[in-house]
Protein 1
Amino acid sequence: MPTTVLLIRHPESAWNRKGIYQGQRDITLSPLGRMQAELVAARLSREHLTGIVCSPLRRARVLAQAIARYHHLTPQSDERLTEISHGSWEGLSRHEAEAQFPEMYGTWTDRPHDVKFPGGECLHEVHDRSIDPVIELLAKDDGGTYVVVTHDTVARLVIAAATERPVEGFSSVTLENAGITTLIGPHLIGSVRQINDVEHLGEHRVNLGTQAL
């Protein structure tokens, strides 16, 4: 039986709510984010999970721990799943980033694959470190179901790679906080079965238009 990976973007963080670039800053969940974590955990309580892997940042770990409570599992942290480093943009709102880095902001909006954040990373670097953990899980021959809790940029790059649009396909993927994407192995390419399932959130969805992504 092929292995399944449930790829989940972390719930809403306090800085998502305020429209601030957070990158690798360790920001906690918003009140809505905490509610979303419980809704995801309840949704997955009926699944037979084999393992849980997450980014080491709190906004991912809180969700991983909420899911783990139903399954007597211990989440495993993997630094390769950490969000992109926004470098000098971290802590800035979208308006502040646009004012301080107008040319780069325009490129990030139109051609994000051409941007390397000052003191941070580019999408190519994140792609190179972040798809391997998912590839490794999908290649397992135990027929298990693994949860991967990560971040917007990482999850979008994984999905782009799975649909044979690595890096350049990043912009065409839209993911909400606490949305679940289902991948089925053994290979990453062709593994996508469902993207951004948010049915479990009901009225507790986010407004992506206010976020700094």
Note: The longest strand covers residues 4-9.
Protein 2
Amino acid sequence: MNSKLFVGNLSYSTTEEELRELFGQAGTIKAITIPMDRTTDRPRGFAFVEMESPAEAQKAITLCNGQMLGGRQINVNEARPPENRGGFGGGPGGGGRENSHGGGDRRGNRPQRRF
């Protein structure tokens, strides 16, 4: 088991201090990250809490999953590694930004291959 946890269904007003108080009951917290939305500059409604050890992370899941925080029932589980989105995102082929010839720029020049 990983020692990093995903905490979902957070209120936008949830603070790092509130998370420290709740998760501190399970052990030592190494780090807390509350991602912000780039356009609104508001929290995105989830956080990552990294515990000192996998055993403490498991204890935090047991203690905190389903608890009420900020008027919401939170979800706590092991964080998954980020997915490789590759290229520009938006689906196969780099998100449709390439021309129909499978790469290159708008003038139809093919990208150079590097070996």
Note: The CA atoms of residues 22 and 77 lie 15 Å apart.
Protein 3
Amino acid sequence: MKIIEDGRAPNPRRVRIFLAEKGIEVAFEQIDIMKREHLTPDFAALNPFQRTPVLVLDDGTAIAESIAICRYFEEIEPTPPLFGTSARERAIIEMWNRRMELNLFFAVAQCFRHLHPAMAELEVPQVPAWGEANRDHAIKALEILDRQLANNPYVAGEGYSVADITALVAIDFMKPARIEMPARLAHVARWHSEVAARPSAKA
């Protein structure tokens, strides 16, 4: 079993944090996206969308998409539970993880991909207006998150979950995307300070 990734990218970091929280060790194989090593026929055979990470099982099965990989490891190592234990918890965590992924993480990624000069040769065409529009979307998502964290220690409620991992990686990705965190979001700042201090955040 191994995970193929570019360790500098945010989606692989989500998986690494998840594995660190679980205490699971997996072999990693690095590829360099900036050198277009993800655009080879061999890698496309594993993931036709040519994105990292990809989990390759011992029987050759390839599992792409960060959350799908995390769900695989949740099934084989349920403790600590990061997707919830009851139907209610699982639904709420799923809801907040999707909110963070689709409204915050995606917006930050689009800002980075369409505005950062380093992405000019990989994101063709870059559409600066789309990047700028997503800057506003990211801030709106952060405002919603701030309201959620006003009454909850973690993104999905009382316990740390995969939703916190998605939100942490998205917010940390704001720096290379050149999105400023509004100073007024005190609850996000409190939460970020706490989850960033967890040992897994350094994975």
Note: Residues 72 and 147 are 31 Å apart (CA to CA).
